[in-house]
Amino acid sequence: MGFFLETLIGGLMTGMLYSLVALGFVLIFKASGVFNFAQGAMVLFAALAMARFSEWIPKLTGLDSRLLANIIAFAAAMAVMVLVAWLVERLVLGKLVNQEGVTLLMATLGISYFMDGFGQTLFGSDIYKIDIGLPKDPIFLLESVFQGGILVNKEDLYAAVIAAALVILLAVFFQFTPTGRALRAVADDHAAAQSVGIPLNQIWFIVWLVAGLVALVAGAVWGSKLGVQFSLTLLALKALPVLILGGFTSVPGAIIGGLIIGAGEKLAEVFLGPSMGGGIEIWFAYVLALLFLLFRPQGLFGERIIERV
After folding, report:
1. Strand intervals (E) in the chain
2. Distance separating alpha carbons of residues 53 and 57, to the nearest angstrom
């Protein structure tokens, strides 16, 4: 029982990080009604900025404090993401107001490829390390309940807490703030939202700004765990099956879907992997998502597609 709980907790902590990345997709989808292919590239771009700034700032300023250097690097990387959000709205989305969804979809695809290439040109294409001070020593929990206790990685635990805190803040933002309600109105009908005075361009800037913050936090956490490299873009796309499970328009769905994917793939790898040759974590999420598409394409908490057409 202890080993099962150990595996389950590890999967749930990874699932919180999946949920965090998935929320970036949900933000853009709720504002534009299309899947944002650029979110994975935004995670990579933000992580590259954070990694290089945390490397450059101590050299330029002579700072010895890693904490202070990381705070300044995070602020500088966030400023970069603010600029990215402004440029996306000004140069791309602002020109496509009231256009078809497929047009916006192709625009995000173009943004993705541009950010992938430009980010590596600007910051480099090597593997970089982000050291945000997350402890890496394992700890044992519930030693009085289970013999030997439950082994938990401190880094995963802290990362899950950071992801959970941001997820809760975003959920509150969407449900209880005027801007969050405006975002939902824009997602339902761009023209109707404009007719009641909601500034579409401003809303798109805000949502890309918040998505940039989510990408930066996710990139910093994943970069601390795995290093900043091109594979972060592919890792971010693990959020796609999370969205299919939870629903493309649902913040709670992104959370629940991430937890299901994280726990499910970890349990499947540990308990089914030995008999199936391993590698289940690579494809488990996508197979589960395909099953959901067959039986519940709108996801656990999403709207039926026919209702949005």
Report:
1. 138-141, 150-153
2. 6
CA-CA distance, 46 to 215, in Å (whole number)? 6
Tokens of 6: 């150990």
For residue 241, what are its two tokens?
A: 């099956």
User: What phi, psi does 138 have (nearest 5°)?
Assistant: -75, 155
Is the dihedral angle over the CA atoms 261, 175, 23, 68 positive or is it negative? negative
| Under 8 Å between Cβ of 31 and 193 | no
- Look up residue 52 and give its two tokens: 């290089």
Other C-beta atoms lying within 10 Å of the C-beta of residue 188 = 14
How many C-beta atoms surround the C-beta of residue 230 within 10 A?
13
At 101-125, the pLDDT tens digits run: 678 788 888 888 898 888 888 888 7
| Whether the predicted pLDDT of 271 surpasses 80 | yes
pTM for this structure? 0.84
Contacts of 80 (CB under 8 A, 6+ apart): 45, 46, 49
In the chain, % helix, strand, coil (3-state, to 5) comes to 75, 5, 20
Write out pLDDT tens, residues 129-178: 888 877 777 777 766 666 666 778 788 888 888 888 888 888 788 778 88
| Burial state string for 160-183 with b = 16 or more CB within 10 A and e = fewer than 16 | bebbbebbeebbeebeeeeebebb
